[in-house]
Amino acid sequence: MCSSAAPCAVIIGMMGAGKTRVGREVAHLMDIPFVDADIAIEHQIGMTIPEFFEQFGEPEFRRIEADVIEHTLATHPGVFSLGGGAPMTERVQQLLETYKAQGGKVLYLMAAPEEAMERARRGGGRPMLNGDADARWMALYEQRDPVFRQVANVLVSTHGLTPTIAAKKVQHMI
Ligand code: S3P
């Protein structure tokens, strides 16, 4: 399914790490398709993610998120950026295991924590950061970082890099 002739990669990482921005640039550089899971989910649910959380809650969001990921992995070649919390469920972890077994790269985009935290706070629209956004981000980072390291088969540090330089670095690793 994935090969050097038809590269494909899933990008995971914390909120604010730049998964969407870098993923889009990588796909552009390599002239391959790009899908962002959050955008695909919003398209499917017909509302914003914060509105969905408010009305239906996180467990229902995770169910739809996993459905969208399963469908996209099965149908879409190229670069696919996931929402920050997606790799935390067993169902998505299993999907990513299968993807890796088929030659796919699961790439953990590791931004400097202070940079990603600030970007996530300033960007807004993230229900998982409701309340004290920095404290919530840090608590999630501590929970998620070890899981991301296990789930990924490629780790890329983007500390201090512009999105364009980060994309070039990623390009050479997938
Ligand atoms: C979430 C991250 C968001 C989005 C949703 C939940 C999380 O995506 O999927 O708000 O649990 O970390 P980004 O990582 O693109 O902000």
UniProtKB/TrEMBL annotation:
**Which parts pass through the membrane?**
none
- Residues annotated as signal peptide: none
Binding of substrate occurs at D38, R62, G84, R144
Q: Where in the cell is it found?
A: Cytoplasm
Q: Quick one: which residues bind Mg(2+)?
A: T20
Give binding positions for ATP: G16, A17, G18, K19, T20, R21, R126
Q: Which family does it belong to?
A: Belongs to the shikimate kinase family. Belongs to the sugar phosphate cyclases superfamily. Dehydroquinate synthase family.
Subunit details: Monomer.
Tell me, in a sentence or two, what this protein's role is: Catalyzes the conversion of 3-deoxy-D-arabino-heptulosonate 7-phosphate (DAHP) to dehydroquinate (DHQ).
What name goes with this protein? Multifunctional fusion protein
Organism encoding this protein: Galliscardovia ingluviei
Please name the gene that encodes this protein. aroB
